Each structure stands twice: as C-alpha cells, then as structure tokens.
Amino acid sequence: MDHSARFAIPLLHPGQQQKEAFHTEAIQRIEALLCATVEGPPVATPTASPTIGNCFLVGSGASGAWAGQEGALACMTDGGWRFVAATEGMRVLDRSSGQAIVRRAGVWETGIARVQEVRVGGEKVVGARQPSIALPSGGAVRDGECRAAVSAVITALQAHGLIG
Question: What is the pTM assigned to this prediction?
C-alpha cells in the first residue's frame, strides 16, 4: 500500500528515494484534514486570490484548476492547490456560517443536526418524537374535551422535554 486507506496520505517505505517529498505531501494532507475548516459552502470556481491555508469544498461543475475535483476538499498550499477526496461522514466547519458540513450519501449536507436528544445544562430539552395527539371530536360537554386535549398537549410537551 502506497497510501493510507481513508485519506490517501503517502506512506514512506524503507530505502525509498526522495522521502522528503512524500513526507511533505503527507504533512500537507494532514494540515488540511486536522480540524478541517472551509471558507464557505461548496463552490465550483477557485477564488481569484486564495491565501495559503484556505480550504474550500469543490462544488459540482468545477472549472479551472478545480476541474474534475467535484466534492473534494481543495486547499491552497505554497505549492498550489492540493485536493483531498471526500469520504463518507467527513465533517468540516464552515467559517462563514459557523455550521458543520458533513459528507452524506455522496453530497455535502449542511444545516441538519442528527441527534438522539438535546440537553441544555444537563436537562433534556428535546427527545424522540412522541405519538400524535387525537383531535377532540363529539361529546356533550365541550369543556371536558378541551381540557383533555390541552392535557394531552402538555403531556406531549413534557415528554419532549420542552416544558417542565
């Protein structure tokens, strides 16, 4: 194996010529992937004057220096653009919005949090979805139905952790 399995980081071999080139390439990839941040959502065209260290997500229809790199992480280095192919579950932080962008099913997904529950100050605030509440119908005493419906709503809100 000449490269690591997940991110194609070059591996050194005993007796290898020009080890420094492979080592430098490995460091560049690690630099791009360690606590990965990007300048914004996926874009198709390289920025006109990138700063060394800036990284971008390459969008569909990529052109120029990014042609053929759709979906990859593009990072500007002192040697030019370096590309890292995205892997399923890869997560980067979008500096422009502060949101996480995650690679799912071959596309970059943003603005979706996939969690089992949300806790604030150790207290459950939102949990699993509860069954729906039946709408009141019929009945001779409407006030009783209203109270039952309101009670069911309150119970559901408590079960979701939205109220104490």
Answer: 0.65
